Automatic annotation (TrEMBL):
Residues 25-210 form the Isochorismatase-like domain. Gene3D superfamilies: Isochorismatase-like. Keywords: Hydrolase. This is Cysteine hydrolase. GO terms for molecular function: isochorismatase activity. Pfam families: Isochorismatase. Signal peptide: none annotated. The keyword Hydrolase applies.
Length: 218
């Protein structure tokens, strides 16, 4: 019988509240944008099935108001690019793969970088990035530490790329990292499962939307 995300170790819901003190915790929403999630975005137009991504966004939409309501920080990270900001390494990688031009994702000028279904509100943290990690080339670490945040509850797209990169960097920077397993997606269930498995083994604890809601609604 194939393994599922439910088979991976998740934090005991009974002890989760003490780990997710809202005053020291940020809910981080990664790359919920047109090009990654909307049917009219580049990923959708390429024919990728977005059903599982939309399920993850449903969960994120549940968590955001609860986090705000209990006083946790809510942070948004998104990719915003232009032809001038594409790195030589990225362009060279794509050219060597024979996919020149496919790096033109989340362009600021055509709406691909726009938020999809979710958006920051006054008081939230917001950062723009050029590649994968929400910490690389941004002031996210400084903003979080200025608020006394030492714990991150990470959601978003995609589990294998920007969620993974952000979680690893967060751990290296000293944050307690939690991944909401049903509020992330990798478009492919096997890739999602294996990415969560690796993160759980190395730098993060797994939890679920319902568990986080229960921890914050007591």
């Amino acid at each position: 019988m194939p393994e599922t995300v439910c088979d991976l170790p998740h934090v005991d819901t009974a002890v989760l509240p003490e780990m997710l003190d809202p005053a020291r915790t940020a809910l981080l929403v990664i790359d919920i944008q047109t090009d990654f999630a909307a049917p009219e975005g580049l990923i959708g137009e390429a024919g990728v099935d977005l059903t599982s991504a939309h399920h993850a966004i449903d969960k994120i939409e549940e968590l955001i108001p609860i986090a705000r309501g209990v006083g946790a920080t809510v942070g948004f990270a998104r990719v915003v690019t232009s032809a001038e900001t594409d790195s030589v390494a990225l362009k060279t990688l794509m050219q060597r793969r024979g996919r020149s031009g496919e790096e033109a994702i989340c362009r600021a000028e055509n709406g691909g970088a726009d938020y999809y279904r979710v958006a920051p509100e006054p008081g939230d943290i917001e950062v723009s990035k050029l590649l994968y990690s929400s910490f690389s080339g941004t002031d996210l670490d400084e903003q979080l530490k200025a608020r006394g945040v030492d714990t991150l509850v990470i959601t978003g797209l995609t589990t294998d790329c920007c969620v993974d990169s952000t979680a690893r960097d967060a751990f290296h920077l000293g944050y307690h990292v939690f991944i909401v397993s049903d509020a992330c997606d990798a478009y492919d269930p096997d890739l999602h499962h294996h990415s969560l498995n690796v993160l759980e083994k190395n730098c993060a604890l797994l939890t679920t939307t319902d568990a986080v809601k229960a921890a914050w609604q007591k």
